[in-house]
Amino acid sequence: MNRTISSYERTWKAASYIRLSKEDEKAKGGIRESESILNQRNLLLGYINDNNFTLVKEYVDDGVSGTTFDRPQFNAMIEDIERGLINMVITKDMSRLGRDYIQAGHYMEQYFPSKNVRYISLLDNIDTYLDSSNNDIAPFKAILNDMYSKDISKKIRSVLKSKKEQGKFVGRAAPYGYQKSPEDKHKLVVDPIAGLVVERVFSLFLSGKGVCQIADMLSQDGVPIPSVHNKIKVGNAGMSYGLWSHTGVRRLLQNEVYTGTLIQNKYKKLNYKSKKLVQTDPSVWIMTPEAHERIISHDDFQKAQRLLEVTSHLKPSKHRYLLSGLLKCHDCGSYISLTPKDKKYGQIYGRCGRYIEYHKFGLCTTHSFNYTKLEDAVVKKVRELCARYVDPESVNLIYADAKRNKSSAEAKIKLLEKELSKAEKRIDLLYDDRVNGVISVENFKRLSQKANEDCQRIKNQLDELNEAAGDNPSKGKQERIIREFLSLEEPTQAIMAQLINRIEIYENQNNSQFIEICFVFPELQVMLNQENGLLGNIGQ
Question: Is the pLDDT of residue 72 over 80?
């Protein structure tokens, strides 16, 4: 295309559009002069002056990818076209307009012609006002630009993955509680303000406060939420504080980064054209232990995860008790619901959660009991068993008894496996009966639910027996937990969750309640079983 075009029938009101992306800056190890903002500006101004066009406005998108057309200055240019201020768009080449060949084709072939806008790409010799064969190859050049962008994206992802595997942090913003090191942007250091908040959250949670209670405490104290904290750090100090939520506190408690472990590659872009992130399979996560200074010990983090697991089924609530989440109805398997403390008498009561929700259908029974009495009985029994555990003579007797019972446990495992197989077959038969119209939908739902619960109950028993029948490589860890429990005047919910798997509430024909403690550690379970395993009537 000739540099100077001598005559036109229209008065051209030109817009010069300039774009430079971060990918262009990184290409070949740095900024190429031909891709610089200054170079594009000089080239376009020279062409406009040589042809006596009127430059209405210059639009510059600096550091914006060409794979998206949602760019601030590009959008501003489109608005001016809609207002009739511009009828000519000039770029250095087609890649500056964009690298998505579908969108680029839309603007060149549909949008610009429909608005009577002339488009010129200088280095590609494309001018939509002229009848030129160069215009015919524009779609192919657009595809090549798209392929270039895809290739650059692959190279950048490869470089980032290599840095992740080396334990370098490559995220845009540091996780809450940390900040990027001034000396090395790929290294995390503890944020002196947010780090203290993280410590406080874990401390409150492990001391028995619920996530709702913690969220309220942080909000009342005016602690900025993570997003606001990050904005404050970049100068928006006047922004109003947001309120903490229980989901935000839970998310913080689940973040393993606070133990010094860097976990990356958890999310990826849908593709090189999209900004949408999708979660990746844990098998491709890149984990680097001891990558930075820890805020929380591994031990406290594991305690928090166990406590989160125990309380995950509980509805968000401001009242939490020592045994919240551990109590289950023996008859139906539902969790026990606990009432707020009675203001008049200071009592707390528990009832079967399924009974509360479905009592009008006759499901289960109330299983009502005085929680305060139950808690006292459980703590007393656990303290007694733990004291026996740390006594050398008692421990020797426990291991001897466990060894004698190992063969018996293996025999029970075989019987339970047969029982599980029969229960699973019953589910299949129920399905066949429903398909063949033998039973109604309501009966199918009721019977299949009961059958699935039976299967789960058998599986739980198998897990316990398999654990009891096997060796115990973590004896040192469990002894440390038991001694920690004994050292506490008032046990915490976190330590109880480490000792106890669940507590089942029984109810006999006389409406008397009994409880069975199912321990995490086999040795404590053996000692309890030697005493018949059930605690006495806890009543009202």
Answer: yes
